[in-house]
Amino acid sequence: MRYFLHLAYNGANYCGWQVQPNAVSVQETIEKCLSLKLKHKVSVTGCGRTDTGVHARSFYAHFETDAMPSDIDNFVYQLNVFLPDDIVVYRCFPVSSDMHARFSAKSRTYRYYITRGKNPFKKDEAFYLYGKLDVEAMQKAADTLFEYTDFTSFSKLHTQVKTNNCRIIKALWYEKDDLLVFEIKADRFLRNMVRAIVGTLLEVGRGRLTVDDFRNVLERRDRCSAGTSVPAHALFLEDVEY
């Protein structure tokens, strides 16, 4: 029978979600825990592939087993006892056999957090950026994302995907408390895509690129034309919709 896990994790100590050779991943950690508790080898499929150091406040994964205990709430409790402190399972629930954590998802929402002043209590969850930014210009540039579907310019090179097409649903800069936040929602994301978009939008905010320059970056479909990716520790997967 197929089950979904709803979980969250701090990605600081992991190479990302996906299993990687010679590195510890979130996927590997959860698979080991499930296999131990269910007493058989368990493979887990996630709703996406967060990069090294990226966090997830809401993440879904599915697995299959015929050995699920009758008390699922206690099973979740036992998982959390065994899992490290930087991973938490919120829920485990049965789903139909055609529900897929990755392919059934209709959208994902990421937020990138920037702090404008040095703050030791935000250093692990926000990117400290000194200097003035033209947020209005950054928003105008972000609005152009809705006009395009090919985001090759913001994709990590040499990835094993069939298409670089994505549909942007939301792209918004806003202030939240003492943070500047970029929120982006799409049907799917490419590897490194959000961090590359934010890095290029910041170039607009600094006055190094115009809105038209940003549009040209999109149209070139060349990663080398885009800005530098911003640090991973300030990026959070916030929501996945099915």
Q: What does this entry look like structurally?
A:
The chain has helices at 26-38, 72-82, 135-143, 193-205, 211-220, and strands at residues 2-9, 45-46, 55-64, 87-95, 107-115, 127-128, 168-176, 179-186, 235-241. It is an alpha+beta fold and 242 residues long. Strands 1, 2, 3, 4, 5, 6, 7, 8 and 9 form a nine-stranded mixed beta sheet that branches. A hairpin with a 2-residue loop joins β7 and β8 (179-186). α3 runs parallel beside α5. The chain is globular, with a radius of gyration of 19 Å.
Question: How many DSSP helices?
Answer: 5
Instruction: Summarize the biggest pleated sheet.
Output: 9 strands, mixed
Beta-strand content bin: 25-35%
Q: What is the helix content? A: 10-25%
Terminal CA distance = 19 Å
H-E string: EHEEHEEEHEEHHE
Overall average residue pLDDT:
95
Which consecutive residue ranges, at least 5 long each, have pLDDT under 50? none
Describe the global form. globular
SSE-based structural type: alpha+beta
- What does the radius of gyration come to? 19 Å
Care to count the β-strands? 9
Structure described in brief:
This protein is 23% helix and 26% strand. It has 242 residues and is α+β, with helices and mostly antiparallel strands. A hairpin with a 2-residue loop joins strand 7 and strand 8.
Task: Please outline the helices and strands.
Layout: E1 2-9, H1 26-38, E2 45-46, E3 55-64, H2 72-82, E4 87-95, E5 107-115, E6 127-128, H3 135-143, E7 168-176, E8 179-186, H4 193-205, H5 211-220, E9 235-241
Parallel strand pairs: 3-9, 5-6
Antiparallel strand pairs: 1-3, 1-4, 2-3, 5-8, 5-9, 7-8
Helix pairs in contact: 3-4, 3-5
